[in-house]
Amino acid sequence: MQRAGLHGPEDLSIVGYNDIPFATRPTVPLTIVRVPFDAIAAAAVDQLIDLIAGVPTSAWSFALTLIPRRTTARTAGLQAATPNRHPSPSTAR
C-alpha cells in the first residue's frame, strides 16, 4: 500500500476477518468483522445430532460484529452502496 502511494483509510479501506492479535497492533489497528465461532460450532453439533436422530432441522444465522479501527473511514460526499439481497437457503424454495 505504501509503495503504491496509498494511505489508509483516505485512499483505501481494509477490513479483516476475525479478531486476530495482529489486528490490534498499535501501528495500524485493523478494522475487523468478529465471527462467533463458538456459537456456530455449538449450533453445528446440535444440528448434526438432530440429523442423526431424524429430527427436522432448519437454517440458522448468526450476528457478526464490525469492530471499526483505523483502516476504515466514511467516504466524504458518497452514499453507501446498497448491499445485494439474497434469500436465505430456508426462504429460497
TrEMBL record:
Keyword Transcription regulation applies: yes
A Pfam family annotated for this UniProt entry: Peripla_BP_3
Xref: Gene3D superfamilies: 3.40.50.2300
Keyword list, A-Z: DNA-binding, Transcription, Transcription regulation
Annotated Transcriptional regulator LacI/GalR-like sensor domain residues: 2-72
UniProt keyword Ligase present: no
Superkingdom of this protein's organism: Bacteria
Name of the protein in its database record: Substrate-binding domain-containing protein
Species whose genome carries this gene: Streptomyces liliifuscus
